[in-house]
């Protein structure tokens, strides 16, 4: 597996950032890709895996809605619930059904699944020649040029993900730089929430 090394937000006593590693691949494999692969290599009928996953989603959603934990060969799924936003109390008697919200699904990968991944890592890990994020962040003139190109390409706005792709920065560093441009007496950008993400528009 190819990996990249990047600085993290955490710093040591001298102010130098600790580094972290992440997979270098940006490829996203779709359900259709996996279905085709299994049909070619594991004697499944085309579409069979997709139909099985659709059935699993329907059945498991029911059991999760009942509060059950679901144990599968790839891992365990469990419903995650919490109190509605803004509600804080120390008295359990005040909590009613309308105060509880569904927050998502927790997933813990299973040992069998993790073991299968490890079995494919026969070549170990190989470092990719990724750019130095610290150097990229220091070149403000280049970043400003890339920002202008992004705004022109998207019609006056940019997202952190798009800026990361165009600049070579990590998503975290791209978002950090865009946020910096929203600060000060004369900010370059205005940050606005859109769905689960933020967009940055010219001021």
Note down, in words, how this protein is organized:
The chain is an alpha+beta fold. Helix content is 38%, strand content 27%. It has seven helices and nine strands. The strands form three sheets. Strands 2-1-6 form a three-stranded mixed sheet, with no helix packed on it. A three-stranded antiparallel sheet has the order 3-4-5. A three-stranded antiparallel sheet has the order 7-9-8. The longest helix is centred in the N-terminal third of the chain and has 18 residues. The radius of gyration is 23 Å and the shape is extended. The model has no long low-confidence stretch (mean pLDDT 91).
> C-alpha Rg, in Å?
23 Å
Structural class: alpha+beta
Q: What do the pLDDT scores average to?
A: 91
Please report the distance between the alpha carbons of the first and last residues: 42 Å
Topology summary:
Elements: E1 2-11, E2 17-23, H1 31-41, H2 48-65, E3 70-72, E4 75-83, E5 100-109, H3 111-120, E6 126-127, H4 133-138, H5 140-154, E7 157-158, H6 160-167, H7 171-180, E8 189-194, E9 197-202
Parallel strand pairs: 1-6
Antiparallel strand pairs: 1-2, 3-4, 4-5, 7-9, 8-9
């Amino acid at each position: 597996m190819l990996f990249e090394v990047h600085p993290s937000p955490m710093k040591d006593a001298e102010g130098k950032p600790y580094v972290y590693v992440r997979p270098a691949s940006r490829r996203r494999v779709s359900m259709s890709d996996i279905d085709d692969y299994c049909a070619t290599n594991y004697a499944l009928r085309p579409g069979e895996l997709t139909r099985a996953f659709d059935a699993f989603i329907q059945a498991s959603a029911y059991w999760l809605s009942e509060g059950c934990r679901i144990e599968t060969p790839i891992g365990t799924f469990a419903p995650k619930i919490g109190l509605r936003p803004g509600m804080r109390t120390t008295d359990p008697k005040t909590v009613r059904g309308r105060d509880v919200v569904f927050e998502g699904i927790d997933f813990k990968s299973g040992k069998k699944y993790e073991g299968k991944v490890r079995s494919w890592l026969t070549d170990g890990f190989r470092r990719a020649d990724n750019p130095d994020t610290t150097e990229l962040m220091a070149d403000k003139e280049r970043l400003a040029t890339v920002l202008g190109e992004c705004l022109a390409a998207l019609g006056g706005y940019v997202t952190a993900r798009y800026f990361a792709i165009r600049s070579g920065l990590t998503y975290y560093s791209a978002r950090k730089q865009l946020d910096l441009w929203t600060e000060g007496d004369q900010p370059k950008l205005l940050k606005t929430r859109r769905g689960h993400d933020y967009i940055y528009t010219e001021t």
